[in-house]
Amino acid sequence: MQAITIFGSNSGNKRELLKKAIRQLSSAGHIIASSSLYETAPWGFEAKENFLNRVVIFETDLPPLAFLKSCLETEKQLGRTRLPNGPRYASRPIDIDLLFYDSLILDTPELILPHPRMAERNFVLVPLSEIIPDFLHPQLHKTIRQLSAECSDTLPVKKIT
Predict the structure, then answer these.
(1) Options 3.40.50.150, 3.65.10.10, 2.20.28.10, 3.30.70.560; which CATH number does 2-159 get?
(2) Read out DSSP for 100-150?
C-alpha cells in the first residue's frame, strides 16, 4: 500500500526535524517519492514562523491505523505535544498528516481517509501536484492537478529546494 503523507515544521531546527521525522518514519515503510521542500504560511492560525513542508510517499505493508500510530509516535519522539483541550492549530516542531492510503476511503474516530481538508490547502496541493499530479482523489473524483487549480487558498507556497 502507498501511504501518502505531508510533513511540516514551524519551530526549532525545521529542516533537521523534517529529516529526522522522515528518516524515523521510514522504518514503517520504504520511501518511494518525495516532493521538494516548500516554505508555507501557517494555515488556520497566526504564527511568527512559517512552515517547511514536504510530501513523502511510503510503500508499506502496515494497515492504515498502524501506520498512523507510527506517525504519531514519530511526532511525540520529536517533541510534538497534543493537548486534549488545546487549540486545533498551533506552532509545532513536527506535524505528520496521512493524506491518502492508496485510494482507500476510511472514516473512523482515529482516522479519516482521504484527509478531509486537503483540498482546501495549497500547502498540501502544491507539493502533491509536483509528484502525483494525476492521482485521482477517490471521493472528489478529481486529480490533484484539478484540485490545485480550483483551490481558493491564497496563502503563499514557495518552493525552496
Answers:
(1) 3.30.70.560
(2) EETT--EE-SS-EES-TTGGG-HHHHHHHHHH-TTPBPTTT--BHHHHHHH
